[in-house]
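Risk register update: the risk of archive-format incompatibility is retired. Evidence:
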Amino acid sequence: MKLDTRAMRYLTSEDWRVLTAVEMGSKNHEVVPTPLIAQISGLRGGSGVHKCISSLAKVNLIAKVKNAKYDGYRLTYGGLDYLALHTHLKRKDLYSVGNQIGVGKESDIFVVASSSGSQHVLKIHRLGRISFRTVKANRDYLRNRSSGSWMYMSRLAALKEFTFMKALRENGFPVPEPLAQSRHTIVMSLIDAFPLRQISSVPDPASLYAELIDMILRLASFGLIHGDFNEFNILIEEKQPTPTCPSDPTESTSTPSSAITLTPILIDFPQMVSIDHTNAEMYFDRDVNCIKRFFERRFHFTSNEPGPFYSDARKGVGRKGSRRLDVDVQASGFSKKMAKELETYMEDVGVDGDRDDLDEVEGPSRWESEEEEEREDDEGEGESESQGEEKEEERDGPYIPKQSADRQKALDAAHGISENGQKASKLHSLTVSHLNIDDKT
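Archived output:
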C-alpha cells in the first residue's frame, strides 16, 4: 500500500465524517452497511451520504466488496492512513509528508516535517500484508477471528511500540523520541544514523559488540526482551566531541577518528516481550545469537566469553533500582489481553522476529502485486459504480494553494531540501568518513 496524500486537500468535512463512520462501523462489521454509514455520520439526506461515498471510493479510501450479501463498504488501508494523518494534522504533530525512507514486512517509514520545519519520522504499521508464505492462511485467520482484523492489530502494534518506546526513553535507553501516536501510526524523532546492516567496518568491533550485549542485559534487568535484536533494528549514530579552540593557531582543528564515538540506537518494538514470557529464554538466546553471528560474519569478530545466558539475565532483574517496565507498560494502558491478542496474531502469520525472508522484502515487492490483485477483485464493482457517477467539477490540473514562507519551509524540510534550495542526495548523511558504509548490504 503506497501512501498518496494528494487527495487530502480535496476532502470536505462531510467526506471526513463519512470516512470516520466507515471506520466506526468496521468495529462490528467486515462490510459496513450503507444505511449504517448514513446513521453514524449523521448527515441529513441520503444523496449527500452517497455523494461522499462516491468521492471516497474514487480515491480508494473505501471499497465495495464484490459479491457481498448486502450493500456496504469496507475501509481500505488508504482510508485508515488518511484518518490517522488527519488526526496528526489537527493535533499539529506534523505538517507535511515527504519521501519514504524504509519498508518492511509490517511497516512503512516516511520522513515528515512539522509546521516549524523540523524533520520527524512517521511509521505506519501494516500488519495485514506481512506474510508472503501463508497468505491464504492469513486470510482464513482474519476471517475467523472477529478481534483479529488488520485494522485492530495494526493499531495494537502502534500502541505497543509507542508505549514501550516512551517507557524506554524515560529510563535512559538509546531509542528515538516518541512524539505522537494515532491509530496505526507513530511520529518519532529523526535519527541521523545508518542501520548496522549497511556498515561494512567499524574501528573497534569489540567495543561495539560489548555495548550491544550490555544493552540486551540492561533490557532484561528492566524485565524486557526485545525479541528482534539484530542488525536490521539497530542504528549506528556518530557523535563528535565538542570542538575546543586550540591554544596554538597553527594546530589542526580536525577531529581524529579515535575521538568519535559510535552510539547504537534501538528501534522496532512491537515484538518486545516480558522476561516472564513463556518463551522468554528462546527470545533472549535468539537476540544474543543474532548479534554474535552478525559480528562474526561481517566484522570477523568472535567474543572469547560465552553467553550471556538467560539464567544470568533473570538474576539481574530489578537490580540497581531497575523498574519492571513490563509491569509499568501494562499499567499504562497496554493490557495483558491486548498483548496476548497481538502476540497470537504475529505468531500465526509468522511475524515473530524471523528475518529469513527479508531478501524478499528488499527485492520485488510481492505484497504489492498481491494487494493489487486483491484490489482488482474486491474493488472492481466499486470502481465500475464510481465511473458511472458524474464528476463534481472539472479541473485543468490539481489546485495548489499559494504557499506561505512557513509552509514552504515545512514542505522543503520533509523532502530533504536545504535552505539554499539544494536537495540532499541522502536523508541520513554522515560527514565523518571513518565509517565504511556498504549500500549493497
